[in-house]
Fold this sequence. Notes:
Elements: H1 4-16, H2 26-39, E1 43-47, H3 50-58, E2 67-71, H4 77-84, E3 88-92, H5 103-109, E4 114-117, H6 129-139, E5 142-146, E6 154-155, E7 158-159, E8 166-170, E9 183-187, H7 192-202, E10 207-211, E11 214-217, H8 228-239, H9 241-258, E12 276-279, H10 283-292, H11 317-325, E13 326-329, H12 337-350
Parallel strand pairs: 2-3, 2-4, 4-5, 5-8
Antiparallel strand pairs: 1-9, 6-7, 8-9, 10-11, 12-13
Helix pairs in contact: 1-8, 2-8, 3-4
The chain binds pyridoxal-5'-phosphate.
Pyridoxal-5'-phosphate (PLP) binds next to helix 3 and helix 4.
Amino acid sequence: MVRKEEELAIRNVLRGKFWASGAGVGKVSEFEKKFNKYIGSDFCVTVNSGTAALHLALSLVDIRNKEVILPSLSFVSTAHAIIYNGGKPVFVDLNPDNLCIDPDLIRKSITKKTRVMLPVHFGGMPCDLDEIKKICEEYNTFLIEDAAHAAGTSYRNKKIGTHGGAVCFSFHTIKNLAMPTGGAITLNGNNGNNHQSILKSKRWCGISERKGVKYNVTHLGWNYYMNEFSAAIGIEQLKKLDKMNTKRKKIARRFSKEIDLTNKMPFNNNCSYHLYWIQVRNRRNFMKKMQENYIETGIHYLPIHKMDFYKLRLNLPITEEIGQKIVSLPIHPNLDESDVNKIIKLTNLFAK
Ligand SMILES: Cc1ncc(COP(=O)(O)O)c(C=O)c1O
């Protein structure tokens, strides 16, 4: 939902001639503080994508030749970020009710090499964090959450972003909180402060100890800092995030009541509903019929472990079945009642 406020914010940055700085001052620092306050996390470091957030968050733990547990039903960045850091992705099957990683199966996949748990709050639905945190404590592993879909989702009355040691958000154009590109890592716990300064340096090529125009580089970093235009849009989007998520929830409530299918996303008032998924037997036909009626649907996702780059023969029966049947319906705050009526009516007509 983009209105005059975003246009004005962009114009002000454009005319102000301060467009970007690796130092993370200006609008970037303002957004960082406001997002941290909104989430209720200890610290927040913004970056220029959700992928960068995952890359940097995983660099906080030495995962070289170690294992990271994650679901395969996600965007490829979740797994790529492990490879960027020299680790090995260990894909684990899902709870078929919410399509989040199944904690019982996590337990079965732990080895001496496991260092990190990387659950994805799928479509904005919160994972079973109580159980996952318990496992992390038991096996002394670090919890990093992929919350790319979960800006505004809550779990146990606290926002997603406050539970794990590092929680990664995406502000890509299609996300609940949209920017041209953007991301953030919220940090919690005893090491939060230290992690914050490491990440602020890594997002700007490893630059540290800046004094005037002089600086030092103490470790490897990347060009991952957020620009002022993204931050300015983000500040406006953040003001209306709850309102936009309430609209998404209203639509999701109707979908979950009125769509006549057994396998569909359940209703949960704590969910941000970045996605609304259903499962259909003949996906190709369903998507074609919807397209003919001017309704765009999507596939989130084809399982990562089936991609040629990974190509793993794994026993993930739930992920594989869902990977063949899952379809995302349109869900966003710009849909009006007649759009929602049409989506429900045509889904019920074509999905059987
Ligand atoms: C689950 C998940 N993780 C990570 C990302 C990566 O975010 P970005 O596109 O901002 O790099 C996405 C983006 O779609 C995502 O859906």
